[in-house]
Amino acid sequence: MYSEDNMNQIKMKEMEGDYKIKLDPNNRWIKLEKNIPWDMIEKIYSSKFKNKRKDGARPKSSRIAFGSLIIKEIKRLTDEETVQEIQESPYLQYFIGYKEFRHQKPFDPSMMVHFRKKIHTWRTEWNKRNNRREHE
């Protein structure tokens, strides 16, 4: 015989408690994250920030910058949609290097423009390093 479940939506406060998200190691973003040479990317990316900014703001990490661009391309999103997807997904937050889930936006969508500008410089350096490795 059919038994009606409680059809009332649970309140968000009831869900918060000790609720922890355990990420699935077979998720595509977890797998992809393991195949990206983040340390090499960071080394190249950070070398482009030798001069301190006048406003004192710190640049976003290479993982946030390049991870966000990868997400945008794979999912074919706008800058605004990319930021929203990252804000809503623990897998995407893990992919860009967050240690825990955050409810707030990771950055303003306008930062994507700056990330794209950096990628050209980064690609040139990446290609130089890969060419050196092939000839060794």
List the main descriptive attributes of the protein structure presented here:
136 residues, mainly alpha, 7 helices
Distance between the amino and carboxyl termini: 72 Å
Structure summary, number of beta strands: 0
Shape: globular
In angstroms, what is the radius of gyration? 19 Å
Low-confidence stretches: 12-19
Structural class: mainly alpha
| Mean pLDDT across residues | 80
Order of helices and strands: HHHHHHH
What percent of the residues sit in helical stretches (DSSP H or I)? 55-70%
Most strands sheet:
none
Estimated share of beta-strand residues: under 5%
Annotation field: number of helices: 7
Tell me about this structure.
The chain is mainly α. It has a domain at 61-136. It has 7 helices and no strands. It has helices at residues 12-16, 28-34, 38-46, 62-75, 79-88, 90-95, 111-135. The protein starts with 11 loop residues before the first helix and ends with a helix.
Concise structural overview:
This protein is mostly helical and about 140 residues long. It is built from seven helices and no strands. The chain has a domain at about 60-135.
Write the layout of secondary structure elements.
Elements: H1 12-16, H2 28-34, H3 38-46, H4 62-75, H5 79-88, H6 90-95, H7 111-135
Helix pairs in contact: 4-5, 4-7
